[in-house]
Amino acid sequence: MTTARAVIDLDVPGDVISRHLYGHFAEHLGRCVYGGFWVGEDSAIPNVRGIRSDVVEALRALDIPNLRWPGGCFADEYHWRDGIGPREDRPQMINSHWGDVVENNHFGTHEFMDLCEMLGADAYVNGNVGSGTVREMSEWVEYLTRDGDSPMARLRRENGRDEPWQVPFWGIGNEAWGCGGNMTAEQYALEARRYGTFCRNHGGNELYRIAAGASDDDITWTRALMESLGCLTCGSQPAPVFQGVSFHYYSHAGAGINTESATSFAPEQFYGTMRKALDVERVIRRHEAVMDSYDPDRKVGLILDEWGTWWNVEPGTNPGFLFQQNTVRDALVAAVHFDAFHRHAGRLKMANIAQTLNVLQAMILTDDDGAMVLTPTYHVFEMNRGHHDATALAAHVLSAPAAADDVPGLSVSASTRDDSALVSLSNLSLDAPLDVRVDLRGRGAWVRRARVLTGTDAAAHNTPESPDAVAPASLETSIEAGVLTVTLPPHSFATVELDLA
Known about the structure:
By secondary structure, the chain is α/β, with parallel strands linked by helices. The chain has ten helices and 26 strands.
């Protein structure tokens, strides 16, 4: 048995961990929307106004804070007026990015906002910059959020919604360096300023506009966007035309996205995945450093609105639908991402895993016969709920054996709210248990509950036949003289809930 030591300062508060770091993403891609969220009002699968009931119930248990829609690459070919009015009258389109399938637009603006209200989640609407117009996006903002009398407010009422919605988050396009227009950073920065100017606040709805930024650590985009905002430290300057800058980051085992199996992998591929997932912290730091040089007061947020693993699709499924299985390895990817997010909560304000249902690193897998499976990644989100809007605590690994070259054996983070704390721990070793001793300093502490998530091996996953092959279980712990002791099985994630004196 190997031993790791860590320290958590229970009386040294840091930044608030925004609940929006636990955000989600639903693109018109594969079976995320159609067959996932949306089954239609005539479906034999229980639903409310066409939205699948068991999916809503499962996501409500996560306290899902926000949902990004309609894309992704799809956003820059989506024209919102095609998705309003009587469903039978809505025009069809071709989803050229994802499977070249016909999109009937039955799930549109009203259906999405209905879903958000069922979930209790804030809406994050991604507008069309690539093939749309400034007027189109401006009118969508008006349609959704304006009260009183206006052309778009009247149109909304004609379609059955009297009161406006609150829609705080707006994406100004997506991946403008690629599927969103193949622009240069300088070209897109000008577009972001223009679109941001005409996406207006209506009534009490204040927009948080998010400019589409980099892939991975391409800080060229972050620098161009921050440069375009002008002097953020000059008191006479107007408010920024966008309030957030995004980037995207996907994990894989080393050969690149969409090249390797989700369930069949060698030890070196497991550790390659951990190495890539852990590297998100370096990427965050690079973007932070650029933003800090222009914006030391941190008025503009960093947004990671696509992240997760990207494996080969499951055999026999449409390659354009990006349906992949979800294993213990994926759960650990999520766990180490969240540890990094907590440490950078001062600048990182939102993150959206890709994606919520049936696509990439999904929370939930469904089928057309009514089966629903909660994935290992779902359980990490559920076990970490206590970090939402809590205050990060200083947590440091003092010593730990390496799981592999450049892969530490232990990852840890912690937060506090009122007289409680939540500690998250991950053993990144594929085959060795880890005895962890955490020095809890500054306040007295007692264990309220401790749980662990693991499987028979790192490829373990849930299926309709074995829905609980990977599920949280009770974990034995002890605290003596202020030291929390816990033994983590190989390839495992654990949370320890503490009551504080």
